[in-house]
Amino acid sequence: xxxASNTNGxxxxxxxxxxxxxxxxxxxxTVSHELRSPxxxxxxxxxxxxxxxxxxxxxxRREFLQEISKGSNHIASVLxxxxxxxxxxxxxxxxxxxxxxxxQLLQQVLLKFSESIGDEAGTVQRSIHIxxxxxxxxxxxxxxxxxxxADRGLLQVMLMQLLDNAHKYSPTTASIDIGLGLNTAAQWRxxxxxxxxxxxxxxxxxxxxxxxxDYGIGIPAHYHDAIFQRFYRVDMNLTxxxxxxxxxxxxxxxxxxxxxxxxxxxxxxxxxSTIHVLLPVQ
Length: 282
Ligand code: ADP
Hints:
Layout: H1 17-51, H2 58-89, E1 98-101, H3 102-121, E2 128-132, E3 147-150, H4 152-168, E4 176-184, H5 185-191, H6 194-197, E5 206-214, H7 237-240, H8 248-258, E6 262-268, E7 272-280
Parallel strand pairs: 2-4
Antiparallel strand pairs: 1-3, 4-5, 5-7, 6-7
Helix pairs in contact: 1-2, 2-8, 3-4, 4-8
The structure holds adenosine-5'-diphosphate.
């Protein structure tokens, strides 16, 4: 595996100081918005609780407390993203490799993810399928397992992040497909796009591919590298309506690199996006 094992370095575009200032200002506005909106919601519900304490019905009180909890969770997750990024950037992340059953982990992550999106409106009709390509058994069959050496916690963070993006950037009724494939590195080299194959050694090492595919807004080709840079968000009207800091894919890329893997995107606007992650099994 190539040392600089990612396929998504800088785009090479030269930024002028003015562009930099504009980007910083935009980023500050995004962060302020991401923190201020939930904070204002919390403040509003706390004020209501204080003002109408004696007159509220149990159901109303519960609803307000749930909104307060949702707002606090959102603020906590924004701050968590900053802390995780800071730890990656200062080299303060220690990878703890252990045998991980990938299918089992995926099923646990899916459960947690479904619970988290279920809360949102109670109306999410999302179906998520796992498709395996390494044999013909069903997912439930224990023989279907891929046992790989990985950091369970970091893989979980990555999978949650990729599912969250697939969810955020596609209609709530569209499905999300998770594909798993197993091949030797040499075989993968012949199967993946050129920009990814350049980073794979032609060896007999087994590698697993995890694909998270959505049928959402997609990403124009000229952004495919940039979205992995920290704080980068695609400048499209739809993206602006969706909460985000532009850190999720940066964090995923750190996690993949720490596992000596590669990550890349295939996407077409209005068709959908697939994030591919290729990781060594051992
Ligand atoms: P965030 O989603 O918090 O903005 P990410 O780093 O996860 O940050 O993603 C960077 C940008 O890439 C997003 O702002 C969005 O424009 C684009 N993006 C990521 N995943 C998808 C996806 N599945 N579909 C469409 N656009 C995406």
